[in-house]
Amino acid sequence: MSNISIYKEKLRESGLRPTRQRLKICEVLFTPEKTFHFTINDLTKIIENKLSEKISLATVYNTIHAFKKKGYLKEISINSDKSYFDTNVTEHHHFFDEDTNELIDCSNEEIDSVNIKKNITGKKIKSVEVLIKVASDNQNQN
Amino acid sequence: MSNISIYKEKLRESGLRPTRQRLKICEVLFTPEKTFHFTINDLTKIIENKLSEKISLATVYNTIHAFKKKGYLKEISINSDKSYFDTNVTEHHHFFDEDTNELIDCSNEEIDSVNIKKNITGKKIKSVEVLIKVASDNQNQN
DNA sequence: TCAACAGTTTAGAATTGTTTTAATGTGAAC
DNA sequence: GTTCACATTAAAACAATTCTAAACTGTTGA
Ligand SMILES: [Mn+2]
Ligand SMILES: [Mn+2]
Ligand SMILES: [Zn+2]
Ligand SMILES: [Zn+2]
């Protein structure tokens, strides 16, 4: 039950050579039945610990950026410390749990579509996304 | 026509000593009639070029963080490169112009209030903000 | 089949934004 | 004025990310 040949094909279609490293990253990102959010650090840890593979950090960055450029990943900015990536590439909203630094999807059905009355002359809307920051009720929010 | 004594008072009320550096930063941030968005780099350039002052970078960071903590500034994350700050501390939404990297306010009257049907158990909503990315119509959006 | 080459990986260096350190300076209180 | 906690500073440290340049590898096509 390996998706490797499927990933090989997808990569070739995209003009990316199906290298060992890229196939491994495809497996980690696209085999799970549910989409998820991750940082580069998360991903390298999965590769190193769970898979006992060794892929250089530069390659992880290269690959993630290549996948993002092809539209297979989305980048999400929550705080300026680091980037989050999302294997759910549909337009959708997020909860951000400030206690755990965790992103949680909020589908479009769970938020009424945002009605924007203003527009910027000469500019086209590329995306509309809602970010809902949440935290434990009894929190010391300095 | 100087607001310095007002800023001095505000700082003292906040438990912050009204130092020369903080007063100068207050002037830059809070004297303009309109609120605005800036990065630390923007701010240091204003201080150095327009005002020919010299405030150490660490002090700029210290002061901005102190002002944020006191609620006089908001931090906005657009991309992970750098932080944006906002002298408009009310809850509001933003357009982000991908051509110019410019933030534009979108008041609550210009967006219908966001209706969220989902909630996260045990978590309280701290903020709900919409980010609308825009770009020139005829753009090469790789 | 295999030579050739463009694309890819890699370790490490460089860069950038930000934070920390530790020494020096200064506002406020007495 | 003296004192002390708070603040400023230059420089070092740090963390995320990007760049560099050399080695490697998938693919092409002779
Ligand atoms: Mn931050
Ligand atoms: Mn970025
Ligand atoms: Zn998501
Ligand atoms: Zn704003």
From TrEMBL, chains A, B:
Entry-linked InterPro entries: FUR (IPR002481), WH-like_DNA-bd_sf (IPR036388), WH_DNA-bd_sf (IPR036390)
Main localization, broad class: cytoplasm
Protein localization: Cytoplasm
Keywords annotated in UniProt: Cytoplasm, DNA-binding, Iron, Metal-binding, Repressor, Transcription, Transcription regulation, Zinc
Known partners and oligomeric status: Homodimer.
Similarity-based family: Belongs to the Fur family.
Protein name per its UniProtKB record: Ferric uptake regulation protein
Protein species of origin: Pelagibacter ubique
